[in-house]
Hints:
Blueprint: H1 16-24, E1 29-31, E2 40-43, H2 46-52, E3 62-64, H3 68-75, H4 82-93, E4 97-101, E5 116-117, E6 120-124, H5 132-137, E7 141-145, H6 157-164, E8 188-191, E9 197-201, H7 204-207, H8 213-223
Parallel strand pairs: 3-6, 4-8
Antiparallel strand pairs: 1-2, 2-7, 3-7, 4-6, 5-6, 8-9
Amino acid sequence: xxxxxxxxxxxxxxxxxxxxxxxxxxxxxxxxxxxxxxxxxxxxxxxxxxxxxxxxxxxxxxxxxxxxxxxxxxxxxxxxxxxxxxxxxxxxxxxxxxxxxxxxxxxxxxxxxxxxxxxxxxxxxxxxxxxxxxxxxxxxxxxxxxxxxxxxxxxxxxxxxxxxxxxxxxxxxxxxxxxxxxxxxxxxxxxxxxxxxxxxxxxxxxxxxxxxxxxxxxxxxxxxxxxxxxxxxxxxxxxxxxxxxxxx
Length: 248
């Protein structure tokens, strides 16, 4: 998988220092994403993410592969050829969450365990230039949407404050240009062992595209040179047939 782009623009966002301190202490923090994505929760352990979200400690989370050393450690455990891994890298650079298959019978790094379910690994790329300090300081982070179970994700720092309380460190990016408007969690796609792409969970990317789920899936796959998994085509011509997976 190729590396991710992004320059440290040196933006000093409110709450960034406190968020880094919380992560150092093993706690979770709420971090912003570029619109139209909603805020997220990150931590150095899956348990901390789930505790903030009031979920069972062992519930699955996704793992951010924003650091080159972490990507290299995981790549050999993924059951996809190099050309497909490059396509996965393109999806991560576009900030989608991606489910990839793990090799059968191969021991994968223990630290990715919280992001593995039914032989699939949930990965994302959390790096964003305004919060580069945090992502560079912590090469291994787990993440999930910034919401308490059953509630929609926080679309602003103010919503995150109301949801998680003043004791939770929140990095506030609401004042940055282009951060207004509708916000959603990231779109999740799945790559099967043959390299076919499937739109697995609707989110910011497809919702803001103006396309139907099926059309978005096909255009996305074509843009990175992957075939489409048409097994769900009859059911997700709109968004109604998409999986509502709560593992992550």
